[in-house]
Amino acid sequence: MKNEIWKHSIRHLLMVCLLLVGSFWLVSCEDDYIYDDQEPEWLGESIYDYLVEQQRFTNFVRLIDDIGYGEVLARTGSKTLFVADDAAFERFFTDNPWGVGSYQELSLAQKKLIMNFGMIDNAYLLGTLANYNSGGLVEGAAIRRTSALSPFDSIVYESGNILPSSPYWEPYRTSGLYMLTDQTSKPIMYFLQRPLENAAISDADFKLITGVERQNGDAHLFDIKVVEADVTCKNGYVHILEEVMLPPLNMAEHIRSNERTQIFSELLERFSAPYYFSQWDQDYKLVNPDFTDTLFVKGYFSRNAANGPTTYPDGTTVPVDLRLIFNPGNNNYSNGPLQADMATLLAPSDAAMQEYLATGSGAILSERFGSWEGIPDNIVIKFLDRHMRTSFLESVPARFDKMSDGSNNRINITSGDIQNTYLASNGLVYETNAVYPPNDYVSVYAPVLFGANTKIFNWIINRLDYTFYLNSLVSRYSFFVPTDEFFENYIDPFTIGKNVPGALKFKYNESTSNVNAIIHAYDPETNTVGDSIGVVNYGNPNQPNEYNDFILNRLWDILDNHVVVGDVESGSAYSLTKGGTLVKTEGSGMGLKVMGGGDLERDVTVNVTDVYEQENGRTYFIDKPIQPPLRSVYSVLSQNEAFNSFFELLTGFPVNHASEIFVRKTNYYGVDFNVKFFNTYNYTVYVPTNDAVNAAIEAGLIHPWNSSPERPGIIGINEMESQEEQQAAIKELERFLRYHFQDNAVLISGEPVDQLYQTATIKLDDAPSKFGTYKNKYYKVEVSGDGSDLSVEMEGNGVAQVLTENNLFNIITREHVFNANLVVTGKWTDQALAPYITSHELQLLRQW
């Protein structure tokens, strides 16, 4: 092939040189020159003369003459022409999509389509068609080339009864309209050996895509074989096709005309509209003065402005989430240079679409909306996105096992799913016997997306791009969703330490499509919610402000604490949420009861109203938000007499001392005090009884802060005269206390446990220890139990038993941290609310 290309290139170079030298001699002398009166024999006739002389292209020559293109192909230009012989035309007249039975039945418009679609306005050998320029020569990668077909060659009239059903077409429902299905010309697609090899498209792939067999070295335009290539003429090249080639429809028009893909087409057509462009209308009328109607151009809303419209016909902007990945009606669509790639559509058959609604995850759609026609656009577009492929080369059968969507989620397509294929002007259409629903349709998020009364959770999920988490099919979730009518009386933890405690009621605002927070007075003593005392409105999301941040932050916290990784019906009574809080569950299915730490404090039960079994877990609709713990470790220990001795030890450290355990962190403020070394983990605190603390003091393991007549002979740390002795006692006490704080939450949950955990005390020596802890590592404890009790074995030989009476176990707490110690003395104003978001949370929020 390289030698052939080289010979033809040399011929072109010689032709140019000969013309230049000939001109010189005409001027400088009158000696005879062989090419003054004749052309080189190897150059051949013109394209037109070649076709006439062959006498087997009479139909194609008639077509050229009838169009008035004979002079062009006889004398001028540099053309590439793909032609079919008379035998091919005879076969064409016996079976073709136009229904014509002879040459005489061809209209002028049809003749133009055959002629212009088979012509390229440059001279290309078959081998050089594989190359293209894109800031430099790219060899062996081209699969398409722009044809000479004008968009005006394919004007259609559509009567009102066949126009799409979307509202943008309604004004023309009675009259119909004349329309360009696209305003770009249709390219020719070809399969040549080098591009096929470079793209790793096998002969088996080619067979599935085109329906025809190929041999090594074969060349095809669409599914039509080139039977004779590189016929050299003085004004270009002729390539002879096995059959007559007609311009294909674009992908959108094909599935619209295919009686088997009407449902999918109707979904796609929702995102199309007619557009009037005065220049196109005027240009067409200049060429066709008899045309007095109005010409429109059909466009599909596209996320890429270069590929399709981003505004409605009235000029208003189409929301980004209501635009398609690409315009499937754009003939010139390509994800990169036009020559290098095109698109692919997975178009499920009507039977597959109906079957999906009747079974599996589609049944939720059917239950909620009744039919495909009833599904809202914002939900439909997620389905279309999943079936629209931006690259043909990445969608060939050999790559089916790696096929994924824009969120990098697998599309489980197989070759057995393919019923039919169609090579359109802008891509490949796979007609499939299956649908490929997005993860949004099958994950625990789906019931929220489809729900009529889940707008608040759906809003915050989309504001935070939380779908990437909930849609993961690798993990399994239990997702609790308070429905809109129950999304009130949420006691937000930041309100507890204020002079005017408040409860939040979140409301979805239909007019703004945002969520607002209404603040009500709350009495913690009686657990009653009073009148409204303030409102925080969510404003323009493109102009972030503290009010928006407040609503997003508080709903984010709620959302995190309604997601459990794992199955809450697996047997354990307690589960850890994504937000790090614990929830208690009882029962299963519709009988499931769930309680957060705050619910347990107030003796409130959250009930399940609906259960949805999804691919990655269960979604539970519930009758109120799960209330996280409102109490901190500090408040629990300070308010229970059984913990007095331990609490006194914890709170006796001098303020700002390095060993201090309860602190108000610099620039951060909680409900009360925070445990200094708690960070992003969940913890367990083992609280010794008052008697146990006294026993440790009397045994000399630690010193109390103050001397007491009840403990004669034991000196309190505060009474020690030696500062060195005092500091050593403080350090020893700190290490003793921190050994009671353990990483990871462990509960008496009904499930057995036997595991080592780290404490908050660091080992300072190399002495051997029971659990082999190294120096400068945290001491461990071994926790074991049969599900109804717990034992804690220490690095020494001691074993402590967790008491299971008087409700002094499984007490759930939470450390709350806010970024300002604002004292609210009156009504809550917008300005008073904003500071309750930590700077770290704000930073994370804005990163989303």
From TrEMBL:
Transmembrane segments: none
Organism name: Geofilum rubicundum JCM 15548
Boundaries of every FAS1 domain copy: 44-245, 441-626, 630-816
Domain of life: Bacteria
Name recorded for this polypeptide: FAS1 domain-containing protein
PROSITE patterns for this protein: FAS1, PROKAR_LIPOPROTEIN
